[in-house]
Design brief:
Layout: H1 5-11, E1 22-24, E2 31-33, E3 43-44, E4 47-48, H2 52-71
Antiparallel strand pairs: 1-2, 3-4
Amino acid sequence: MRATRSHRNNRRSHHALDAVRVSKCEKCGAPHKSHCVCMNCGSYNGRVVIDLAAKVAAKAKKSEAKKKVAAK
């Protein structure tokens, strides 16, 4: 049986997307998604989960190694 436009649209009325919930980081105060790690300081729920300083250092070391190989 055919569903009319109004019945179809009534069914789809709950399909709208909600806005992303944004929380404030306890340590640095930066905005981040709820229940996700803060990508500014690497903390979640008040404790450090990701050591971002080590990640940045490793990335810099890797780029320096690439520059040395490219220079040869």
